[in-house]
Amino acid sequence: MDDILKKIGLQGILPVATVEDEKKAAMLAQTLRECGLTSFEVTFRTQAAARVIERITANSPQMLVGAGTIISVDQVRIAIDAGARFIVSPGFNPKVVEYCISNAIPVVPGITTPTEIQYALEYGLDAVKFFPAEACGGLQYLKAIAAPFRNLQFIPTGGIDQSMLLSYLRFPGVLACAGSWMVNPEMIEAGQFEKIAALSRQAVTTMLGFELRHIGMNSPSPDEALNIAHQIEKIFQLIPQDTNGSIFVGTQFEVLKRHYLGTHGHIAITTNFIERAIAYLSLKGIGIKPETKSEKNGKLSTVYLDLEIGGFAIHLVQV
Q1: 3-class DSSP state for residue 72?
Q2: What is the pLDDT of residues 194-206, one digit of tens each?
Q3: Are 218 and 297 in the same domain?
Q4: Which of 141, 180, 292, 299 is the most buried (most CB within 10 A)?
Q5: Given the residues 22, 24, 54, 129, the one annotated as active site
Q6: DSSP string of 270-308, one letter each residue
């Protein structure tokens, strides 16, 4: 898969912005970046679209900006000249797709039927836009038409909002969800960037779903670990369960039988999407300890971050 599509997939949420005033472009890009969204789509529904993309790429070169609602090859040329890095179309236009492929431009055409999906596969595409998602039957319809096409990824958009974000993203066939609910055109036009920030943070928070799983405590020996576990059991009436390297007391506490990462121990945080969580945290300058990675069924399941908080290492866990 193209690196740009991989980046969109790791972000998970693709804001779709319709901007009438190019003077709002820089602030919009800054707001989205601060919320952990460094890729977004600017629709060609306004006269200012190309100038908006030009401003963003000039002021925020780290942002990955695509052009949406592209319906002709001429628009593709204009968008790419303005700095767009990928193209999104509402429907499947063979001329647009062919031009993009021949010029090595990532393109995500719109589809609603199995026939259009087969066209996409004939062109060797990795991802398509499922539009208009909710009007066409939503997630259940997408699951039905996607079933025979396991090698194609979908970016659903159209009628999707905060309430249905997770259900779409949990479907393995979905690369990312696109939508305008956090970048409503009226909010952009009114300069309501605090509201845009609040909605964008809420979307990212919902997607990642960070929650406390347990507290891990280091101990110098198996005997001391057992002693600590018994203390916790006596106080909180939780049942200890011995494992090879540690003793769990209930689900809330883990007592390690040796000193491991963290001055005092670790804090385990669950997330809905561990790879997306890693990508999000990297924007904050927080990396991982690759040697601590563990997998389950061939997929990353746990990893430690490369920082301590209050003497505790941080441990990400995929739920």
Answers
A1: coil
A2: 999 999 999 999 9
A3: yes
A4: 180
A5: 129
A6: EES-HHHHHHHHHTTT--EEEEEEEEETTEEEEEEEEEE
